[in-house]
Structure formats: C-alpha cells, structure tokens
Design brief:
The protein is an alpha+beta fold. It has a three-stranded antiparallel beta sheet. Strands 1-4 form a two-stranded antiparallel ribbon. The protein has a two-stranded antiparallel ribbon with strand order 2-3. The protein is globular and about 50 Å long. Helix 7 runs antiparallel to helix 8.
Length: 216
C-alpha cells in the first residue's frame, strides 16, 4: 500500500510515527499512542489567486510521501541498534500448532489482544468511533467512514472529513478503470456468498490491470 500511493514529486517531511513490535518492547513506548495526539494533524495551504482564496487539502499520497523518509530512518535505526538481539524461542508445539505465539514479525496497523480486543494504530474500536470522520462529517455521529479507517491504517493519523472525501473521490475514479470483466464476474456470484469471498474474487480478478504486475 505504501508504494501504491507515493508521488515522488512531494518533498519528504518528518512526522510522528510509532512501531508496535510483537517480539519485544524495544520500541519507544512514549510514542505508542500518538495516533490520538495527531487526530487533527493535517497540512493546509492557502493561496490567493485573482482575489480568490484557494484551500488545498493534503491527499493520502502527500501524507504517505511526507512520512517515508522518517519511516526509513526509524527502521534503519531499529536494525542497527537491535538487529542482533534474540527475541524468543520456538517449541515443537508451536510448530505443530501453525506457529501460534511465535514472535517473528514487526507490524504497525493493528494489535489483537485476547483480553482487551483489537486496536487499530493504537486505538480501540470505541476510540475509532469517537475520533474518525463519519458520513455527516462529525466524529461520533454514526459509524466511521471506511475510507477514514483506511487512512488511519496506512498513515497512523486520524484524517479530517475533507481528507477522507479526497480519498473517496480517488477510489471512485479508480473504480472506473477496473478491467471490463470484473463487474460482470462479481454480479454473477451467488447473492448468499460471503462478502469477503466476493471481495477476494473481485480483487484477484482485477490483477489483469495491476500496475504492480506490469512493473514485474
């Protein structure tokens, strides 16, 4: 997802990031909950042309591009300072059990705790409902927009309604470029098929128009 949205023309800027590490507590815990503190963080530019005020909202591509340099630096520092550290051991039971409980991955988007439940970028579901934009534009007024959760997962920042609207418009524009066989395929699926199964089929069918496939 990171590289699908990057625009090389956007100058990199530093931003607050955090890492959540399954293996250990190496990562600085003081930055773990910065998603809440950056809930209103976004870049707004105003210019005047012919006496008219023009407001430009930061897009998802610009937000990701501004974070890239800091992200690369953080990972490089983590590897340099802690790359040789041992984080655990693997038992035969874990091997037979499908690697359950094996500490072998660093990730950021979510954390599923058996007691507390799931967190998205450090936010619980109720917290997401409180701070993420809704259809009305007012946080807490209904369920969060899907695009607002996508923004949160990709950037670790809570977007504004205007930022979410730019992502919605872009996704709608991209939908018009789907390969011609995708929509008829989805429409031909049984109506009682699980939505995630339909989603997986549609996503895989769109591979023929994949920019990544062309790059390879």
């Amino acid at each position: 997802f990171w590289f699908a949205f990057l625009d090389d023309t956007i100058p990199p800027q530093s931003t607050v990031q955090y890492h959540q590490c399954r293996q250990c507590s190496i990562i600085d815990n003081t930055t773990k909950m910065n998603a809440l503190s950056t809930a209103t963080k976004f870049l707004t530019r105003r210019a005047t042309t012919s006496g008219t005020a023009i407001r430009s909202v930061t897009t998802l591509q610009e937000t990701l591009a501004s974070q890239l340099t800091a992200k690369q630096t953080q990972l490089a520092t983590l590897k340099k300072e802690h790359g040789s550290k041992v984080i655990g051991q693997v038992t035969i039971d874990q091997l037979i059990g499908g690697a359950r409980g094996v500490k072998c991955m660093l990730w950021e988007t979510s954390n599923l705790d058996p007691e507390e439940g799931i967190r998205f970028r450090g936010l619980t579901i109720p917290e997401c409902q409180q701070v993420l934009p809704t259809y009305s534009g007012k946080a807490g007024d209904g369920e969060p927009l899907l695009e607002s959760l996508i923004w949160l997962l990709l950037t670790s920042e809570v977007p504004t309604k205007e930022q979410v609207d730019t992502l919605t418009a872009e996704l709608h524009q991209r939908a018009s470029k789907l390969p011609s066989h995708v929509i008829p395929l989805i429409n031909s699926l049984p109506k009682d098929m699980h939505p995630m199964t339909q989603f997986s089929i549609g996503l895989n069918a769109a591979q023929t128009g994949s920019e990544f496939a062309k790059a390879y």
